Amino acid sequence: KSFMVLLVLLGSGLVVDGGLSEIHSLHYIYTALSRPVNRPGIHEFTAMGMLDDHMIDYFDSDKQVKVPKQTWMKTELEENYWEKGTQSRKSKQQWFKVNIKILKDRFRQNDSDIHVLQWVHGCNIDTSGNETEFLHGIDMYSYDGESFLTFDEANENWVAPNDAALQTKRKWDDLQVLKEYTKVYLKKECVTWLERFLKYQKENTAPVKPAVYALSREANVQANIVLTCMATGFSSINTIVQIKRDGLVLTKDDGDVRPNGDGTYQKRDQVEIPKSDKSKYTCEVIHESSGLHEIRVWDTDEGNTAVVVGAVVGVVVVVVLVIGIGLYMAVKK
By CB neighbour count within 10 A (0-12 exposed, 13-18 middle, 19+ buried), where does 330 fall? Predict the structure, then answer.
């Protein structure tokens, strides 16, 4: 159970607002296990920095060194940054070791099962205006996949969702220095680093024009088809993707921007229409940073696109099934 909780938590993605806002995030995720396990890729302690849901640095208990996971991180940050980061991660590793033992004793647990303590903290900002706008911070702890403690920014105290966390809450609420540090880190220090990382990333990444697809497939209702307008492979999330009918926008540009996993993003708009509809439907994508403004037109008389999309989706489903089976077998062994 603990393995599955760990995999789900580390695999969860952050969905970015897909409007004209430029919403960015910087999060650090720390994960500690109650004891070592002999499983490839699963370490007793891991820590990683995530910029807009993409890993920028990494540390684990086996290699014991903080390393860059993006080329621009290695280029822009001096060796002293990585040395200090390594020492900081080692200190946090010891903190987790002590506190996971405290929690095991509090819950009267032994080493027959693997227990997981996680800490996630960071901040979200909007850079679409003339000045950076702080949106919110996050500082939360979870134990065995359940929320344990969360910092309430507005009231500047810790929130305990269950009785087991009340003892820690009371202790931390009495530490004014801790509350003040947490507030300042989330609203100022984290934002400073986030802006700095975005600057480094922008200076070292050339604007890439997204690939545009106007797709169609059969709908659940036999008399209808589903049109999908999709852009993928872009690095700037400020992208408009919309479907028009005879020149008029059908839906608001509020689709989610989702990470591809390679440092780029994708976004799509979708509408279901009757097959009998002979209106002119167009897929429009505007990507300001690369100067792209592309329009694709659907031919609603042709059914070939639906066949192609069906084949692509079929391949994706097979890949997902293979990955899922692999993870299941790894845990069961």
Answer: middle
Which of 21-30, 101-110, 254-263, 264-273 shows the lowest per-residue confidence on average (mean pLDDT)?
Answer: 254-263
Q: Do 50 and 165 lie in a common domain?
A: yes
**Cα–Cα distances in angstroms (integers) from residue 191 to residues 89, 264, 283, 329, in the given order:** 20, 22, 36, 41
- pLDDT tens for residues 280-307? 999 999 988 788 899 999 986 654 343 2
What is the pLDDT at residue 318? 40
| Residue 180 CA to its chain's centroid (Å) | 27
Closest by CA to 98, choosing from 32, 164, 21, 177, is: 32
* Residue 101 to residue 107: CA distance in whole angstroms: 10
Q: Which domain holds residue 181?
A: 23-204
Q: Which residue has the tokens 């105290």?
A: 157
**Same domain assignment for residues 116 and 189:** yes
Residue 330 forms part of a structural domain: no
Give the end of a domain, one of 170, 204, 238: 204
Q: How far apart, in whole angstroms, are the C-alpha atoms of residue 243 and residue 228?
A: 8
pTM here is 0.70
The CATH number for 82's domain is: 3.30.500.10
Do 252 and 186 lie in a common domain? Answer: no
Residue matched to tokens 């159970």: 1
Lowest mean pLDDT among 19-23, 100-104, 115-119, 239-243: 19-23
State pLDDT tens for residues 138-165: 999 999 999 999 999 999 999 999 899 9
275 in the same domain as 220: yes
Q: Which residues contact 153 (CB under 8 A, 6 or more apart)?
A: 136, 137, 183, 186, 187
CA–CA separation, 125 and 135 (whole Å): 5
Query: What is the Cα Rg of the chain in Å?
Result: 23
Q: Tell me: do 193 and 222 sit in the same domain.
A: no
What total of structural domains would you count in the chain? Answer: 2
Report the C-alpha gap between 324 and 268 in whole angstroms.
Answer: 25
